[in-house]
Every structure is written in C-alpha cells, then in structure tokens.
C-alpha cells in the first residue's frame, strides 16, 4: 500500500529550488539563525525549528507594530524563503499583520526530505513556535496556503477549532485530482483537501485565477463550495498560477478580508484545544482515513484546563464579553453563496482587467519571477 502512495507522491513531486536561494548562519545558542543573501530588516528574524519528524526547518517571522492578527503562510512548490522573503515583508506591511513563513523539510536550508507527512509536521512546528515563542493565540491566527501549501493548511485547519480564518491561494482539491480528472477520493491520494475542508470551522477565503493552466480554477471553486463558512471568493479574471499577486484586486480583496476578520469577534473561549506533553495537537481531523501518519493515534482532547491557562493572558478584552453572543455574518456571505463564479457580478474594483498591471503597491517590482512556483504539469507528463 505504501508503494502506491509513494508512486502518487512521486508523480505529484516536490521541487525545492536547487541551490537554495538563501543561506543561514547558525547562532551559538538557541533556535535563532541569520538569513544571508536577503536584505536585513530590523523587524524580521529567523529560527530553526525542530519537527516531530526529527527535521530542522527554517522559519522567518515578520513583526508588524500594533498587529492584532498573525498570518501563518505555507508557500507553493519550487520556492523557498529567499524567494518569498520580499513578498512576506510586503504582505505584513500592507495587511497590518505579523507573518510567519517557513520552508518545508528539504526546502531551502531545512533538513530532511519533502513529503506529505513531513509538511504536516512542518506547519505544526511553525504553529507551535507562534504560540510558545511569540505569544500568539489560536483565535488570532490566519492560515494561508498557496497551491501545494493548501495541503498542510487544510490539514491543520481541520484539526484546530478556534482559528480566526483560512486563506487558500490557487489551492488543489488533492494531488491525484491535479493529474487526473477523478471524481472520487482514493486511499492512496495525497493532500485530500476536498475531504478536509468541510471540517474547517472558521471563515475561508479562496483566491484562484480563471486562466490557471497548472491547477484549474475548478479546484478553487469546488473547495469553496465545500466550505462550512464561506467568505466572498476572488476569481481573478485572466490570472494564472504564478502571478495573482500582480493584480490590483488581489491585495485589495485581502485587505478587505483581514479588515472583516479583525472586526469579527474571536471564537468562543470554550473548548480550547490542548497540547499534550508529547507536543501533539489534540484536535484530530474528522476524516480519519486521510492520515496514514501517527496523527490517528493522537489522544482525545482532555477536559482539564488548557495548559496555557497557567500563563496569564495579556488581555481578555472583549473575549469574555463576547461569549454567548451570535457571531456576526462574514462580509456578505449570503450574497456570495448565490453563485460560485464571482464573474456574474461586476466588482466595484478593477477586477475586470484581463492583464495585470505592472505595479500594485510595489508588488510588481517585488515579484522576482516566481513563475516556477509550481510545476504540477511537468510532473504529470514527465512521470
């Protein structure tokens, strides 16, 4: 059975940039490292994090003064932190959020080999760092998954009940569905996002280009249809797999989304997910057949008080007062459900432009030809 899964994974393939686009200088003590071949910034720091699979992955944290929310960004294939560095800095600045990006095992200066199960351990290590090192709370974290990064994003999103929101950027329904137009899920498939997304309880924003020749736009639309709590999607007319950041509506819609999420009350403090002594996330995925790793063995959530309660929170602000109140709707969800294809309604912005502008909030100058960010088509035909 494992051989079939490995074959599918091999056809799907991972493409870490070779050589890596950046280097690291290890510090004498602790997790801290220094990134080389990228600009130095006072609000950016990097760490080497240990995963439960035994790999050491590189993560970078961009701090924004006064930020209320934190974006945990899982990048696409054939990219590493050196290539994503400027985008991460720009997103943090424009969205007014803290941002953590990380390299998967075998990518950049991260140790180990890329695999589906390793990416799940990788995002868990990054999430844990946000909680334990940077003092973030689950209810203030937005998961962001681009393309193959939608795999670990959906997996973690399905296991955490109090996330603030999820963004899926050019996402895949599953690895097998990228290569073949199958209608059903098979046990040997990988990144079975289509089965996991109904378990995500927070608002989900889907962004996809209508001219994506790598991962067809139908993937994004099907995932959006299966969301439990939909947010108005963004179908970028004429956008392909690698250039959505260049379109004006991309950053405008993201800003609008983050603003709506900030105004929305945090999830209730009841049923806070726990972290056990073995550093395992204890919210299991609903679709247990999806995971062939040790995640199926995670113990059930305990009824005891969250271990984090031992640490005083900096502020309970409005969270206690919000208990028992119905959640406010999320930015015209009812309207957006009337149609999957947003092209039925003209947007107030300049969404209808077929071609990306050369510059939007400095994104054009920052995107350093990340056109190989995913290579699914190559793998599908090249075996």
From TrEMBL:
Biased composition annotated in UniProt, kind: Basic and acidic residues: 292-361
Alphabetized Pfam families for the sequence: Hydrolase_4
Domain Serine aminopeptidase S33 residue range list: 68-174
Superkingdom classification of source: Eukaryota
Region of interest called Disordered, as start-end residue ranges on this chain: 269-362
Protein known as: Alpha/beta-Hydrolases superfamily protein
Organism of this sequence: Rhynchospora pubera
